Amino acid sequence: MILPFLTCISFILFVKSLSLGPLPPWACDMRFLPLCFWKELPFFIPKAIKKSVSGCSTWFPWTLSMEKRNPGSNHENVENNGQISLLDLPELTLECILERLSPAALCHMAGVCSSLRERCTSDHLWQRHMEQKWGGVIGHAAYLKWQLFSASRKNSIALEGLRPQGLIRFMGHAWPFSFFRSKFDHNSKKKTSLPVDSAMSWYLALETGSFWFPAQVFNRENGHLGFLLSCYDAELSYEPQTDTFQARYPPHGRRAMAVESGVQWERLRAPPVDTSPHVLHISDCLNDLRPGDHFEIQWRRNKEFPYGWWYGVVGHLESCDGNQLNCRCHSSDTVVLEFNQYAAGSQWRRASISRKEHGEVGNEADGFYGGIRKLYKNDEISTWKMLWPTQVLE
């Protein structure tokens, strides 16, 4: 009976002690801790209470000014005046906390000491943030370009005889956290390296807009009528101030490179296939196409232009009345393509391709149709429908 009572009193004193000190900026990211934290909490209550009685104001070192810490210190130097460090937590509990932190909070924590810096810059933490924020727009082509970029930086560092700390310093100037910047400026004599090919390096290069990556843009050039319901390849750079992108479309023909600013996230996607915009896509779905199927097809104005992907629906042959019981369109060698965003009498409304001998077809007047891919995923189809124009095009 006495033991539960003492435990209860100890817990109340412990919780009360948590409110005595101000919280750092990253504390807001720790509101929801996993169950494993609460399971292991009782093992640390006695130690926390002992410190509270001797004058410790909190379990976590929140009352310590993070600005006064030495970023180059190690685990042994983290404790100050007998207070319990975050690094005193069990491995699983600490890992759960770090997994809850935002990228900004991880950068703050990385400036506290060398032990936390090693943990907070680990790939497995940053790969999760990469997937959450950039997974929808980063594809295989972007990854290959990043690998080349990283290899180039490694070679440059090797030739200059420098340690790979350039991105850390760049991060301190480009990342909008004065705390992080001041930490590494103050500790300039201590060498702090971050692998140029790490997940954190890639995330920060994307986040600061210093890395241009290949992706595709729906309705290019601010929804120009000539590009509605299309998707074109571009080089993109993130603009953190506006949470939008700048897009550079490659030059073609006599036309110079087009640049578009303010591109929203919902207009971007990672390329679904690894086909260059100047190469004919190999169609592997021709025998599966039936009326009502959704598709994307390559199209370009002339042979000097790159391909863009255009959305459409498979239609019925003119000889078919559209009755599903009598329809034999799927067994015909001819596939009818319908682009219903155009008016019924428009030259762009319908086109046809061959199932057996499909290559690039077209002319200078109507443009050239290339490879075709059938859309199987509902999220791809819904994205196109979301971009549907409010008026029928001529």
From TrEMBL:
Source organism phylogeny: Eukaryota, Viridiplantae, Streptophyta, Embryophyta, Tracheophyta
Keywords: Signal
Database matches in Pfam families: F-box-like
Origin: domain of life: Eukaryota
Domain F-box: 83-129
PANTHER family: ESTS AU081301(E20138), F-BOX DOMAIN-CONTAINING PROTEIN
Secretion signal span: 1-17
SMART domains for this protein: FBOX
Protein name (Swiss-Prot/TrEMBL): F-box domain-containing protein
Keyword flag Nuclease: no
InterPro entries, alphabetized: F-box-like_dom_sf, F-box_dom
